[in-house]
Specification:
Elements (H helix, E strand, L loop, with lengths): L12 H16 L9 H8 L3 H13 L3 E4 L3 E4 L3 E2 L18 E10 L2 H7 L6 E11 L2 E10 L16 H10 L5 E10 L2 H7 L6 E11 L2 E11 L3 E6 L2 E7 L2
Antiparallel strand pairs: 1-2, 3-11, 4-5, 5-6, 6-9, 7-8, 8-9, 10-11
Length: 246
């Protein structure tokens, strides 16, 4: 099989344009300033609008730009380092957490989550929704999936107001044997995009956490962070998340 010499591969047009745009952002635009529309930018730099969109999407992914409903594309503010190290060895909802619980329903978990939990795809699980606020805006949303087998003593007469607290309370009574996390880049689903004030398909960081008790996965949390304002770094005993004010 023939090999490709990387030195001979031409730089994509959108990547070169991204570099040019970065220089323009640094020298001509202020934080929060709205960029000209795509037609004007494409004409200024002499590129096709498809090439321009690729460059803008990359800059949004890197946190240099933000796209807002009803506003347009604006220059993103610099990131502000804020430590939100999760507490190791504790269940969700314990201690001074940065998350706020907003509700709970019984629904079938997504196939990938059901596989982690070891449940049937059509089995209903308790799904607790939580959100993370920073500088007056929601920067993350989380779904915590808890199968009925993990909380067998859950009261039957639950109401919308008592469902989530009861699930978290019963979960916290289990001995937590361990937890592990994975991080991947994803695209915002319609519901998450609405919660985070992003456009559907916008880049997000997805953090999946498995909680283990008595040799079984007792719960799985899937947290979705805004990729334009969040930077995940790892060090010490857990991940640190730097968030940008906007």
């Amino acid at each position: 099989m023939a090999t490709t010499q990387l030195e001979t591969v031409p730089e994509p047009k959108y990547w070169h344009l991204k570099t040019v745009l970065v220089d323009a952002l640094d020298s001509e635009f202020a934080v929060g300033e709205i960029l000209p529309n795509e037609r004007e930018l494409a004409a200024r730099f002499g590129v096709a609008r498809a090439t321009l969109r690729q460059a803008l999407e990359q800059l949004e992914l890197e946190g240099r730009l933000q796209r807002r409903r009803g506003v347009g594309t604006t220059v993103a503010p610099p990131r502000m380092g804020v430590s939100v190290d999760p507490t190791q060895g504790e269940w969700p909802g314990v201690g001074a957490e940065a998350w706020r619980t907003v509700g709970c329903v019984e629904a079938a978990a997504p196939a990938a989550v059901a596989a982690l939990l070891g449940t049937d795809g059509d089995e209903l699980v308790h799904t607790v929704r939580r959100e993370r606020m920073m500088h007056g805006q929601q920067v993350a949303t989380e779904l915590l999936y808890v199968p009925p087998a993990s909380v067998p003593a859950l009261p039957r007469d639950l109401t919308p107001a008592t469902h989530a607290p009861a699930v978290l309370r019963e979960l916290q009574m289990l001995p937590l044997a361990g937890e592990d996390r994975s991080v991947e880049l994803g695209s915002a689903r319609a519901e998450d995009a609405k919660q985070l004030d992003r456009l559907p398909g916008a880049p997000v960081l997805v953090v999946t956490t498995r909680y283990v008790s008595a040799g079984q996965v007792a719960a799985v949390a899937v947290a979705t962070y805004r990729a334009d304002t969040c930077r995940l770094t790892f060090g010490g005993t857990g991940p640190e998340i730097a968030l940008a004010a906007s």
